[in-house]
Amino acid sequence: MRLRFSRGVITIAIIVVVLAVAISVGLFHLLKKTKQLAVPEKAHCDVRTPLGERWLDVEQAEISATIAAVAARRRLPERALVIAYATALQESKIYNLEYGDRDSVGVFQQRESQGWGTEKQLMDPVYATNKFFAALVKVKNYRKIPVAEAAQAVQRSAGGYAYAQHEEEAKLLAAAFSGRVPRAVHCWYPPGKKTPAPQPRTAEARKQLARALGSTAVTSERRGWLIAAWSVSHAQKYALRQVGYSGATWKNDMTLKNWQTGGKAGTKEVELS
Hints:
four-stranded antiparallel β-sheet; three-stranded antiparallel β-sheet; 9 helices; globular; alpha+beta
C-alpha cells in the first residue's frame, strides 16, 4: 500500500527541514564566536610587504625593529639589513636566547670566548647588532656577494650554507622595518582587564629608541616609517595605544588589521600616545 502525502504536508516538511538546518548553522557560528571571545588572542605582530606576509611574536618584532634602527644609525644599505636578518633567523629565529652551542648567546649567538664581548653585553640586542655590523662592513664586497657567504664570513659557522634559506624572509623584514614600505608593521596586544590600563611611557620609549637609532628626529619619510615600525613593535612594552605618522594611525585594536587612514598629516614627527 502506497502512502500519499498532500502537497501541503510536503511543503510543511520542507520548511521544517530548512529551519532545522538554519538553526544548526546559526548555533555553530554562535558557539564558534563565543569560543573566540572567551580565549583572548595572543599578542603578535603582522608584517606585510609586496613580498608577502609574516607573523612574528612581539619579541621577534622588537628585535627586528632594533636591528633596523642600528643599521640606520650606521647608515648601512638595506643589503646589510638583509644579511643581518638571515643570520638572526638561522641562529636564534630572532629571539634573544640565553643559551646556545657552548658559550653562544643572544640573537646572533655570539661567543664571549671568541672576543665578541661579555655575556651581559651580548644579551643586549643593540650591542650585539652593532658588533655584527662592525664585523660585516669589514667583509670584502659584502654588498655584492651572496647573502649566505657574507653571513658566514662574519659568523664562521660550521654550517654556513644554512643562511641562504632565510634570504627571502630577510628581504621581507628588511623592507618593512627599514621603513621603505610604509604601514608594513601592525601589532596587537591584549589590554589589561581588572586593573586600569597603564599610562603610555612615551618618554622611555623614545629614550630606548635613541640607544639604537641615535637621533630620533624624522629627517625623511623612510626614517619616519622606521621609527613608526619600531614604536608599534614596542607598543606592548611601553603601553602605547596609538602611533600616528604621515596621515596614518595604528591603534591597539584587535578588530583593526591595518593602519587606518587619518590623523595628523605631514612627515615631521611620529606621534606616540
